[in-house]
Design brief:
- By secondary structure, the protein is mainly α.
- The chain has helices at about 5-25, 40-50, 55-65, 70-85, 90-105, 110-125, 135-150, 155-185, 185-200, 205-220, 225-240, 240-255, 265-275.
- α1 runs parallel beside α2 (about 40-50) and α11 packs antiparallel against α12 (about 240-255).
């Protein structure tokens, strides 16, 4: 049976791709890239990625864009290049490629993925709470962009979870600094940090401890109204925690009760809590 010219060309192209992939293995052997089609270079990039060589994959995906700009293959290669850079932990390059994709193809179906890769390139650099938190703020903003711009995507659901973790991370940083000041007797500086947690990070896991530390700090300064009010808020929202138990012991040991008193900033928080407008 005769074989059509189209089938022969397809078979030849497939054979060339197989030859190319079998020769690559991280080396530069094989035909020059400018003699290959966009698809063949793209397939080599995929091969490198599957072979756990994301740096080489990113380079070949970039060659698709360079040699065949504005083609459908170039568009696909650009977002894959961003993914490869991220896989290689070259986060700055991943952000650059992601942003170029979003700028060039803002309405493409892969735009949510590109936005998510950009957000991850910040999020995955968040390390221990002792580091500078500038990247955490950038991660929060980038994750918010995913959530607000593509709310119905799978990436938005994942971004929400990571947003909560990053938000808690910032709160933990404030707590770390506050504890540092508290241990050294710098009570006003400690209170300022714990106040940030209570006012700005009240939905995080750090809030209960922040309220307890406020009880400690205010009692140390002799400010009993504030200490009692912090204990009251703690009892209203976190009665089952050991933080409330510890605060209760501290307050009752001074002949005090966890109840709203005075007219300071915590009294306003207490009123909001009772009305259910706070948490």
């Amino acid at each position: 049976m005769a074989i059509s010219g189209a089938k022969l060309r397809a078979a030849a192209g497939a054979a060339l791709t197989v030859l190319l992939l079998s020769a690559c293995g991280g080396s530069e052997e094989g035909p020059p890239l400018d003699s290959l089609s966009a698809e063949q270079i793209y397939r080599r990039a995929e091969f490198e990625l599957e072979s756990k060589r994301p740096d080489d994959a990113a380079r070949y995906f970039g060659e698709v864009e360079r040699l065949y700009p504005y083609s459908e293959w170039a568009k696909r290669a650009l977002v894959m290049q961003a993914f490869s850079y991220h896989r290689d932990r070259d986060y700055e390059a991943a952000r650059g490629a992601s942003q170029r994709f979003l700028d060039t193809y803002p309405g493409d179906e892969d735009a949510p993925w590109a936005q998510y890769i950009l957000a991850l390139s910040y999020y995955d650099q968040i390390e221990d709470v002792g580091r500078d938190q500038g990247l955490t703020f950038q991660a929060l903003q980038a994750l918010r962009d995913v959530i607000e711009t593509y709310p119905d995507s799978d990436y938005a659901r994942s971004a929400i979870l990571k947003f909560d973790l990053a938000f808690d991370h910032l709160s933990a940083k404030e707590m770390e600094i506050g504890r540092y000041y508290l241990k050294r007797g710098h009570f006003v500086a400690a209170i300022n940090r714990f106040r940030v947690v209570v006012e700005d990070f009240q939905t995080t896991t750090q809030t209960a401890e922040a309220l307890h530390r406020l009880v400690e700090a205010y009692l140390s300064l002799g400010l009993t109204d504030e200490a009692q009010t912090a204990g009251a808020i703690l009892g209203h929202n976190y009665r089952a925690t050991h933080w409330y138990e510890d605060s209760f012991v501290l307050l009752t040991g001074r002949g005090l009760r966890p109840e709203a008193a005075g007219d300071g900033w915590l009294r306003a928080i207490y009123r909001q809590t009772i009305r259910g407008e706070w948490l």
